[in-house]
Amino acid sequence: MTKKQLIADNFSPEKGDLPQRRRTENLPGGLYYFEDNLETGGVLTANVITSAGWLLEFLKLEAGEVSFMSGTEEIRPPFTELAIFYPSFTFTRPCFKNVKAQLRGIAGEADLPPQFSKRPFVFEANFNSAPKNAAEIVRILESSREVQFVDAKPKASLLSLKAKKLIDENYRIFPSIARIAARLKVSHAHLTRQFKHDFGLSPNAYLHQIRIADATFRLTRGEPIIDVSGDVGYNDLSRFYKQFRKSTAASPGFCRASKK
């Protein structure tokens, strides 16, 4: 497998295609549970960008190594059984080197305690303890030990953080990047340069990424494609299809079918 797609949120690897899940299950409270086998030949580095949904993954490594880039630092968890928590609206950059692993995950939009809402982190966890409801998720997060924060861009500028927050809060209603720049009292060009310097992509590209992240989660829960397109801010269905393929290398229909 050359590409790993996080069904809950947008996961943008550098090449490959979307795999089918080994097992999926829709749980009460809008939660989505999945199981998969992860196997990478060589090195796979990816950008994980979450939208309104969060994701908790459990990995049981049989071979290989998992690491995370945080700024210029490479973080290597010293565990063979680990959990990775990706909060809403965060950037994470994991790297999988010759990995063979079992994977379990759960995703949702249910409210979690605020201390878990800002930074992605990895910790040692029992692979067999993958939760099936929000209460169990909170229990696992609260009992986590040896936590390592793995946000990809921990030192972004205040300007970029303010712009990101405005996009996060308004991505479903097509926020104008030019209008955001004006509100922050900078030029559109300056905001774009600074945002790209801090996050590695333009504000407009980030807007599309979190929309597709939201769409991916909704599609895997079985929601109709036309409803999802409008709900995440695309009134033009053909544009939604084009942007979805560009971001995931798969069609919305394939993503929706993958839950089966």
The percent range for helix content is 25-40%
Structural class: alpha+beta
Number of helices: 8
Total tally of structural domains: 2
In CATH, the topology of the largest domain is named Jelly Rolls
Mean pLDDT: 85
**Structural shape:** globular
Question: What does this molecule look like?
Answer:
The protein has 260 residues and is an alpha+beta fold. The chain folds into 2 domains: 10-149, Sandwich (Jelly Rolls), CATH 2.60.120; 158-257, Orthogonal Bundle (Arc Repressor Mutant, subunit A), CATH 1.10.10.60. It is 32% helix and 28% strand. It is built from 8 helices and 11 strands. The chain has helices spanning 134-142, 158-170, 177-183, 188-199, 203-220, 225-231, 237-248, 252-257, and strands spanning 10-13, 23-27, 31-39, 43-49, 54-70, 73-75, 81-86, 91-92, 94-108, 121-124, 148-149. Strands 1, 2, 3, 4, 5, 6, 7, 8, 9, 10 and 11 form an 11-stranded antiparallel beta sheet that branches. A hairpin with a 3-residue loop joins strand 2 and strand 3. The longest helix is centred in the C-terminal third of the chain and has 18 residues, at 203-220. The model is unreliable at 1-19 (pLDDT under 50).
